[in-house]
Amino acid sequence: MAVQDFLIASLVLSCLAASSYGTSFSSLPATLIVSASTKQGQVLKAGEDKITVTWSLNTSLQNGTDSAYKTVKLKLCYAPVSQKDRGWRKTEDDLEKDKTCQHKIVAQPYSPSNNNFTWTVQKDVPTATYFVRAYVHNSADEEVAYGQTTDVHKTTNLFKIQAISGRHVSLDIASVCFSAFSIVSLFGFFYLEKRKSKSSQQN
Questions:
Q1: Rounded Cα–Cα distance for residues 166 and 146 (Å)
Q2: Which residues span the domain enclosing 80?
Q3: Residue 14 falls within a domain, yes or no?
Q4: What pLDDT, in 10s, does the model give residues 63-100?
Q5: 101 in a domain, yes or no?
C-alpha cells in the first residue's frame, strides 16, 4: 500500500512539474524564413522610422509541416548586447518567463507565403539593439514554431533603435523665452523698488 501511495504521489508531482513549465523555446522548430528591411547596425528613430518584415514557410520542409499553424505573431526582440546586466530583459527557455521579445509588432492569420508587414517603430520603444522574431501559434494559441531575422546566436542582422529623448525644439525655445522673461521681470522689479525708495527719501 505504501508503495502504491509513493507511486501515486510521484505521478502527481511529475504532472505538476510538467504543467508548471510552459512551452520551451528550444523545443520549437525554426520553420519560418524571416527578413527585415533594416541593415546591420542601422539606427532607427522611435516614433518616426519604419520596418518592413517579410516571412514565409521554408519550402524545403516536408509537406504538411504547417498543418497546425493558425497565427503568426511578430515581435521586436532584444539582442544579447542590450540584455547584459538587465534582468528585466533576460532570456529564458520557458516562453512564459522569457523577456527577450517584449514589443508586439503584429499578429496575422498564418499563410505559407507572400507575407509582409510595415511597422512604424512605436514611441515607447527604448534605446537598444534589436532583431525581429516571428512565433507561429496553433488553434490553442500555443507556440509551435518560429523564425527570426538573425542567426541562432543572435549576432547578425541586428539594428538599433534610438528612443525619443523627450525634448523638443519648441519646448527648448519656450524655456529660453520664459527664462529671459523671468530675468527681465526681476530687473524690472528691482528698478521699480529702487525708484520707490528714492521717491520716499525725497519726500
A1: 35
A2: 22-162
A3: no
A4: 999 999 999 999 999 999 999 999 999 999 999 999 99
A5: yes
CA distance 49 to 167: 18
| Domain of residue 148, CATH code | 2.60.40.1930
**Is 11 within the bounds of a domain?**
no
b/e per residue 20-32 (b: at least 16 CB within 10 A): eeebebeebeebb
What is the tens place of the pLDDT at every residue in 90-110? 999 999 999 999 999 999 999
Give the whole-angstrom CA distance, residue 22 versus residue 107. 21
Report if residue 146 sits inside a domain: yes
Grid coordinates in use for 146? 518560429
The enclosing H or E element of 85 equals none
Do 135 and 34 touch, CB atoms closer than 8 A?
A: no
